[in-house]
## 1
Amino acid sequence: MNEAKPIKAESTRSILPRLTWVDGLFWVTAVAIFVDLYLIFLWVPKEAIQGNVQRIFYFHLPAAWIAYLAFFLVFLFGIFHLRTRNPRWDHYAYSAAELGVVFTSVTIVTGIIWAKPIFGVWWVWDARLTTTALLWLIYVGYLMVGAYAVSGDKASRLRSAVGILGFAVVPINFLSVTLWDTVHIEPIVAGGDETFLSADMRFTLYFSLATFTALFIFLLIVRIMLRESEAAVEELDQERETARS
Amino acid sequence: MADREMAGEQQVDAAIEVYNPWLTPRKKLIAGGIVLAVAFASIIYVVTVNTGQFFLDVSEVQQKGSLLFGKDIRVNGIVVPGSIVYGEEKGVSFQVLDTKKKSGQPLDVVFPGVPPGQFDVPSVEVVLEGRLEPDKVFHITSIITRESRKYIPITEE
């Protein structure tokens, strides 16, 4: 007679899925996005001169700020990577650069949509818009370095150098509206007596900024996890190739 | 693993150098860096020239006067309220004031096209491109309206 196998205590397990802190961040971000959309489209009052098109402001400005943050992280992780040669920093920098390009694209597209009814043109080659286009090109170039370089290690070092040098354009881009005469307006937030933003508009802007930041952090973490998985698979492939030969 | 990769890289470099000494990664990197630096410098130069040297205020246009006749210039000004006169079919004439002083002698402007939507906003700031002719009228080819830095909510809603 066979001995009875011990039965696993399946019934004591929770039926709820195990939530990690990344899942928690996802749900916080998702709820924040819905609240943000409610604030932007239904709660905050319409602007008197520009009308509804001014609501683009609550997407345009946070996207630009997040792009700056992303490129700063590329700069920082690039320095860490060149100093330590640890590929982990390159994965972080690469992931931040991808998101920086995405958020810069959002900034450019929302700016173009906003410019036509307000400036009367889709695009103008003033200092702010030109340096934004330049910034976008630099970081697209950064992402392309990996695709065209000879080897992985060399590509990652070259990429880090591009990320560090490319960051020089960020302060130029930020200061361009005060350094030169531009069609793009000077800063509205903390702009002094010549600017005005009502309390509800200011609240919506800050909420939108917090939402974009949460979204950026969530996407960055997920992208880094994915990038590290890609690197692990690549390493396993190389080991298998070596074992075969 | 890393050592093997480094050795591989060196072999690739050596092989490239034999076939084409101009294509070593180091030389490509230096050349790329020079191209990138020249590209940056040219873009910044173009931006500075276009938006700095030829971005004049109304008072500067009046000061320079005949020196600017026939030259392509870009002028920043505030549309004088009540000065806008539309043509029968198309075109518009109006006056602009200095953005800094917001007073003084206005500059007469003629535009043959259709102005942008925000043009009728009282005291709108505009960037105008065109030529100052000897009749001291600024004949422009484009109008760009600048947005206000004051976002005023509609209160009646």
## 2
Amino acid sequence: MSEDVVMYCTFQASGRLFGVALADIKEITAEILCTKIPHAPDCVRGYANIRGQIVLGLDLKRILNLPSADDDGKRLVIFKHAVGPSFGLLVDEIGEIESVSHRDIVSEGLTTGQTSGGPSGLIERVCPLADQLLIVLNPRKFLPIIENALSETST
Amino acid sequence: MVETPYAEFILESREHLQLFETSMLALERAQGDEIRRCIDTSFRAVHSLKGNAGFLGFQTLQRLAHATESVLEQFRGSLSVPPNHVVQTLLQAVDRLMAMVEDLQHSHLHDVSALLNKLNAIDSAEESHVRFDPLNTEFVYHFCISSRPSESVLSLIRTLNSCGTIAHLSIPGVEFRADVTSWPNDQLALEVTFQSSLDIHSLHPRVKSVCPEITWRELGASELAEISSANFAKSLMEYANSRPGHLAYEPSDFVVGVPKPPILWVATTRSEQQEIPLKLPSLNTTEPESPQQQEPKAVAPPTTRDLVSDSTKHFTESAIDASKYSAQVAPSAPSNLPSIPTSDRISSLRIQVDLLDRLMNLVGELTLVRNQSLLAFGETDGSPRAIIQRLNSVTSELQDAVLRTRMQPVGNLFGRFPRMVRDLGRQLGKQVELMMVGQEVELDKTVLEQLSDPLTHLIRNSVDHGIETPEVRLRAGKPETGKVTLSATAADGQVIIEIRDDGRGIDPNAVKAKIIALGMKSESELQKMSARELYSHILLPGFSTAKQVSDVSGRGVGMDVVKTNVERLEGSLTIDSTPGLGTSMILRVPLTLAIVPCLIVTVGDERFAVPQRGLEEIICLHPGGQGVIEHSFDAELYRLRNLLLPVVRLKEVLNRPNRFDAATKAEILSHNLPSERDPNRIEYILVLKTGGRKFGLLVDDVRGTEEVVVKPMHPSLKKIGIFTGATLMGDGKVALIANLDGIAEHADCYWVEQKTSQALQRDPAEVHRILLFEYGPKEQFALPLVQVKRIESIFMDQVETVGEQAFITIDGKSTRIIQLDRFMNVSPCEIQSQMHLLLPKFVSEPMGILVSRIVDTDTLAIQLQESSMDDPGILGTAIVRGKLSLFLDTQFLREQLFGGAENEARQSNVPESQSETPLPDRRPSQRECQRHVLLVDDTPFFREVVKRYFERIGIHVITAEDGIDGLRKLNDNHFDLVVSDIEMPNMDGWSFCMTARERGIETPFLALTSLSKTENSSKALECGFNRFEEKLDHDRLIATVRELLGIDDGGQA
């Protein structure tokens, strides 16, 4: 693999294609059940049991204000500990692994309009693939969003 | 596990320093409030380090930490980041502190004066940029002096000590022969490495003046290098015929002074004779002071292997001693030494707590697998079922074992305090005695470790602020020596640690004045506060009533650290104080944070775990029942006997992320009007106690109890106060664990203060309550509620029988089922498919009484009749609710059930003998002397029960109904022991004991009461009781009585 190619794990949510750097991902689970956590922000779906470990599941669609129903988004993309302590994103479908060359990456400036009201910094870049756009997320920004949402309700 | 206080100190210091470093680094990027937090954190870290180092005598470390702390002090409360060079210097200080901690034995060798100057420079002038170059300010001397051993050598050492730091001192060139019995009387050579800021010209005259006859030969500075103890030991070995030798002297601090004689040179020669200690008659000298004087010992044992047998006596001892240290010291010991035989080395093992946690996780996972396999095989499959049952028991045993690896006696922690109190007392010119109780109580290692800081602070506080100087004490009419009592007790899954001093107490007015001065509260607010609330302010940051900052405490950080640490452990801290009489600080911490017994409840479809620690009882709100929830102004209340219990609906708490305010409460009330109550709905109120106050938590259903493995909340969700964590349930789903304090707080539940000052005591009515139940159709049985653990609902098809005996598994334990008609003359019961099993408290073996119907509970204000049925299983009878009720003797049942050989041995002075009895007592046993006990209790029932217990071990019992009756009987008879209740009419147990003591009666007194031991045991001791036991744990009571009477378990007096 040449240096200017990045591998992204892609997944679908509300029909859109998202991606996270493959290096940040620990595992992807089959369909799971989450236990709701009262008082947690809306975008927290709950706790899931992954082989004896409790993992916090975040709802990608609710974070991005995408249309969602309670029962969809059941597959969990779990991140490595370096990204943040045991948490993952609930998504609809897991897609292919895409290798994207740096030349194809478009900077963030172009996309801010898409996420109006959404938290900044979440979308790292957008890559035009052959058939659609790949929205690359920065997983390190997710937990701070939860924390902010929580401190807003408590004040 | 062998632990030196130093090993703990090193571990702790590492943590403190790491914390310090990270917050320093964060500080450089911090803004606004964060700055203050960073400075506070690092301040606390270095403050704790300073304190610990001081107590253990690492003065260099302490000095540096103190200087660092002083610098930080200047920037506390400021909102700007300290200038770059300050942060830089602080980081240098941390690096140095870290280096010293890692090489603790040589920490005093470190030269910190340059750094100290640098830190002090910041201290005195903010903008000063004076830099000290360590090379210019420091001289290192390495020289050899020779002299006759005499007083002047001693003076020399003292002089050197006043001019700088003696880094290394050794006595080379002494040859050891087997027949040498005293130190060679000629020249003595000392090799000294000495660090000083004085140059050689100013140093020489000083030395010459005290020690004119010495010759002084300077060695090249290059020889200095790094002289470690290992090298020292090595060089000694060369001199002593390749055998290690060491100087032995009482532990002492070289910086304070030279050790007291005798100083022994302990070495072994190659001769086949016994080791001869070489005595240095008048010489007071020592190897380089090392706080851990373990080096020589550690080097010693390997040589014992090739020692001939008759010279090993001394070394056998030291070998044992050294095995403790070998693991830690081995790396620095000379490598050519043979290693210690493995069998000596491994008696304990240090394991990472992480690893244990992982083990816990895996065990939890194993439990899941077990449950799944249970489901996978149907009930009918015979053979897999047996396998799964074994899997079951292995799993629970494994879990138990893993949990136990984490438990350690608090004595491990307490061990360091006597020394600390002593040193501290001396330092402050006070006479203090430390009493310790309950060292054997066990606690989770992680909890124990985190308790070390808070306890150190609290004890330090007691000695520093609590205990007065001897003069003040004498003037106040107290004994000269102050007393600090450190006690640990385990109760209800918690460990309660109390630090009580008999010092000056906390002046409430000083606290008030300070609160007002700090602008925390207004005067009118303060007037409404209870003393406890008032004292709780002491725990806030920046609050100290000490008039001056002392070396040990009083900067207002201590208590704040304590509070933070204790809360992190889910514990609590309360302060009680009587001005002039003393202060007591009560710490409550959970036994373990890993596994918590919980009640599983549901709200809607979700399950929640409620820790049983705070659970007092469960009320079923049955449509047919009488209890209802009533509305007061803005709260829902339930009448719980004589108490109005505020009720919180868990459902409402879960649905409302914002803390309840008046509007929320009104809304909740309007949704839950008593008139609109669904008549078919069954709900449950959990009566919960947190911090001595009660509230009711309303839930939809109660599923049962379970021991859950606690996993903390996700760090990003820490702000959610109503949960403490999550756990995995048997079906693999996650359930949340409720935080009782958090829920009460969230619901803004206001407390109904109990009228009595003893708000924390158990409801006295509870003690006198009995449970009524039926077994056969004819009789009604009764058992006091204090003797009931709980009632389980069981299905008879789960019962397994072995011969005549029936078993069922409850809480993972195989529990014997008692069918009453097998043991006594009562009607048999008609077995239905579902029955109740009553689990009694205070029995050592798991057993349960089979019950066909639970009738009710009632108060025990009843006169108990001596059993007319002449049945040993019946204590007595009483008419309850118009029906004759039989009071069961659970101890009798236990003995019937488990009265095998083992039991016989333990209870061997239970008379085998209804037959041999010329004595007045029904059941005598002690052949030589009959023991007489006075039993004072106002409740006939307990009088009868306890009397039976005593008579069963051959004690003659005379009973009295209250204190006055007791005193009368004490006058007329001789007793070996008085056992007294506390709460009694006419004269209570406190006054009874005090009056008896005033009359000069010295008979041992045992308080036997339903009051909580934790809160009252100290008071009991003050009143003159020798011991304190809670009602009504048979085994403990008997053990204590035996101990007080001097009867040992073997039955011999």
